[in-house]
Amino acid sequence: MRNEGRDQWTAQPMAWRTDRTVDTRDRFIVRTYNTLFGAIVLFAAIEAVLFYTGLATTIATAMLGTSWLLVLGGFMVVSWLASRAAHRAESKAVQLLALGGFVLGEAIIFVPLLYIADRFAPGAIRSAGAVTLAGFAGLTGVALWTRKDFSFLGGILRWGMILALVAIGASLLFGFQLGTLFSVAMVGLAGGAILYDTSRVLRDFPEDRYVAAALELFSSVALMFWYVLRLFIGARSR
Fold first, then answer.
1. What is the pLDDT of residues 12-64, one digit of tens each?
2. 223 lies in which domain range?
3. Could you say which of 92, 136, 183, 189 would form a disulfide bridge with 227 (CB–CB 3.0 to 4.6 Å)?
4. Which pLDDT value is given to residue 133?
């Protein structure tokens, strides 16, 4: 009897700790997706202000007239700094500032593509946004429903991104166009990144790093939106 009583008393704290761990993870997931939603709203608000004030035209003209290698290089540096700060900074304010800086950088680099879409492919932005959100929701649902560990995609995604950067750099240096198949492949790569990031949100990210998790997810969603929009522009400008 004494042993049974002891087992009951020790089992209760274990169950309480398990429940607390689950609750903590659930709160982390909710915070991550709330922060992601805020980042998407901020991105849309920045673009709306830039186009409403006419600054988008100035930015697009300047960026389209300069070397995209310099633009992409600068953006990669900003992305690396923002990601590093979001992952390592102890201050939540610094983490959020890093996310905000990353969103601002994405908004600026999107301006030329959105400008082209707005002028030459009416309706493409709305259609691409809807397809991207539907794709993100579907892939997130798969990861949440199956609870499958997609960490095996990490190596594939890294190599895919390296090959994509090489292809983009070569196209800019040698003046050839990356066609529809490349855009389709990049949409697939972004989809894999969403599965990978969602799996990490469910399993790996520390509970105090929901800002960093939101940044990773936002980056993958933005990548998908970029290439889905390119596909719609190509289809509607023919």
1. 554 444 555 567 778 889 999 999 999 999 999 999 999 999 999 999 988 88
2. 2-236
3. 183
4. 95
Q: How many domains does the chain have?
A: 1
pLDDT tens for residues 176-205? Answer: 777 889 889 989 999 999 999 999 888 878
- Classify residue 22 as exposed, middle or buried by CB count within 10 Å of its CB (0-12, 13-18, 19+): exposed
Give the pTM. Answer: 0.84
Distance separating alpha carbons of residues 37 and 45, to the nearest angstrom: 12
Please give the C-alpha separations between residue 164 and each of 19, 167, 168, in angstroms, as whole numbers: 43, 5, 6
User: Among candidates 218, 214, 197, 185, which has minimal Cα distance to 106?
Assistant: 218
Q: What is the 3-state secondary structure (H, E, C) of 102-148?
A: HHHHHHHHHHHHHHHHHHHCCCHHHHHHHHHHHHHHHHHHHHHHHCC
Q: In terms of Cα–Cα distance, which of 5, 74, 38, 35 is closest to 201?
A: 35
Are the CB atoms for 155 and 193 separated by under 8 Å?
no
Tokens for 87, please give them.
């992952």
The contacts of residue 98 (CB under 8 Å, 6+ apart) are 81, 82, 83, 84, 85, 86, 89, 211, 215
SS3 94: helix
